[in-house]
């Protein structure tokens, strides 16, 4: 399948928002999705963006059954680890179901790794839902490992009222 991977543009936010909704549906997390296209535009394309995104795109002649040419994306941001130094965190890696198995996910993930290495990052972090066994197998084939299994770390979260309460002096 002919496709290209490129840096996302503000004009891509409508398609990125669509694919984020598709991913949330796939993961059974649609009821937790509050992010909007406007949020993506503001947070990813300002002078100091909170995230970066790359998109996988096919020519018009290969568009999806739904008429889309943007068929995948990876959303990532840079961070810091007190033991390793610079890191890159891939928040999402998504390829539309009808385009899977064609090397698009590998190309997106590879590009995030390349961008991270170019920025001096020592590791690429991401999370995957435990029920997404095909993705877990894919990541293992690329040499990635499960941090929880190997080191026992768990991702913790504080949000909503708990975060507001925690923020009180």
Task: Write structural notes for this entry.
Helix 1 packs across helix 2 (37-44). The chain has a 5-stranded mixed sheet, sandwiched between helices. It is built from 6 helices and 5 strands, in the order E-H-H-E-E-E-H-E-H-H-H. It has helices at residues 13-26, 37-44, 104-118, 133-141, 147-151, 160-166; strands at residues 4-7, 52-57, 70-81, 85-95, 123-125. Strand 4, helix 3 (104-118) and strand 5 form a beta-alpha-beta unit. The protein has 169 residues and is α+β, with helices and mostly antiparallel strands. Helix content is 34%, strand content 21%.
Quaternary state reads single chain
- Please state the average pLDDT score: 96
Helical content stands at 25-40%
Number of helices in the DSSP assignment: 6
Largest sheet: 5 strands, mixed
Structural class: alpha+beta
In one word, what is the shape? globular
| Count of strand segments | 5
Q: Outline of this structure?
A:
The protein starts with a strand and ends with a helix.
Give the SSE map:
Layout: E1 4-7, H1 13-26, H2 37-44, E2 52-57, E3 70-81, E4 85-95, H3 104-118, E5 123-125, H4 133-141, H5 147-151, H6 160-166
Parallel strand pairs: 4-5
Antiparallel strand pairs: 1-2, 2-3, 3-4
């Amino acid at each position: 399948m002919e496709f290209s991977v490129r840096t996302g543009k503000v004009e891509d936010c409508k398609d990125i928002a669509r694919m984020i909704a598709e991913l949330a549906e796939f993961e059974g997390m649609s009821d937790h999705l509050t992010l909007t296209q406007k949020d993506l535009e503001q947070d990813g394309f300002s002078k100091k963006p909170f995230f970066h995104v790359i998109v996988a795109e096919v020519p018009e002649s290969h568009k999806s059954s739904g008429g889309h040419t943007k068929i995948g994306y990876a959303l990532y941001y840079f961070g810091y680890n007190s033991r390793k130094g610079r890191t890159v965190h891939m928040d999402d890696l998504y390829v539309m179901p009808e385009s899977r198995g064609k090397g698009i996910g590998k190309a997106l993930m590879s590009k995030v790794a390349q961008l991270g290495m170019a920025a001096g990052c020592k590791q690429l972090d991401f999370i995957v839902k435990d029920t997404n066994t095909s993705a877990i197998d894919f990541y293992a084939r690329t040499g990635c490992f499960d941090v929880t299994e190997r080191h026992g770390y768990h991702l913790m979260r504080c949000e909503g009222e708990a975060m507001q309460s925690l923020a009180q002096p």
